[in-house]
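Objective 1b. Sequence-to-structure analysis of ABC-type transporter, integral membrane subunit.
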Amino acid sequence: MNTQLLLIQVFNGLVNGAFYALLSLGLAVIFGMLRIVNFMHGALYMLGAFTAFALGQAFGLGFWPSLLLAPLLVGALGMLLERTLLSRLYGLDHSYNLLLTFGLTLLTQDLVKQVMLSRFDVSSAPFTPPAALAGVVNLGFVIFPKYRLFVIALALAVCLITWFVIERTRVGATIRAATENPGVTRAFGINVGRWVTGVFGVGVALAGLAGVLAAPIYSVEPYMGAELIITTFAVVVIGGMGSILGSVVTGFAVGVLSAIGAAFYPPIANTLVFILMAVVLLVRPSGLFGLPEGAR
């Protein structure tokens, strides 16, 4: 393989890594702060793409308004679900959360499928990127689509901002206090429930954002998140459950490694991440960036 093709594969891997990073970051935020295994994350990713498509069809909104509104709407739905359903399962075994979110995944996929068939008369639909991001960019060493470069840059910026807010600001300190020691936090007059709901909403909104960004690259269809979420869970495990930095770094790294592996040996493309996960778990069960259980 020549250098040009290898660089193209690296950039394609960074695009996939951008989606892995946003999704695994949302999962890490939710699990790290709330200890909830959200199996619905892939459906929420799909819902972000579908919401952007529906806003365009129903109200004529373009890409830029949808990029802002769709994640907010998906995040609001996530907060509603947390308050009405998930909050009733706190203190119970994690399997209850897993079963509930898995059931909600199936329900969401079927509802979107029915709406797309009955309202828009399609089973899948394209989503046009903005004209400002059409075409390609010559970076000197590689020519690459402008929109895909935008996806990489925006995903990286959002991931870094999220990490900074949680790890380096007063808001992040309050969030960590509210989830790690809610009793003491309430004693200081802080509404813990409101913070928990907000954190869940942010994690869900990140999945919705990934869906909107993915819509112009992949067709919008009800099951677009079904396979992606399995790989995303593997990314979270490799990076370390609940590790914000681990999710971001591992997401981009897995995307690049999978793309390069597929270029040299295509049959390994879908299994490389799971091979990597098995190796990491054998060497470091807490993940690359996760803390050992006794240090939590």
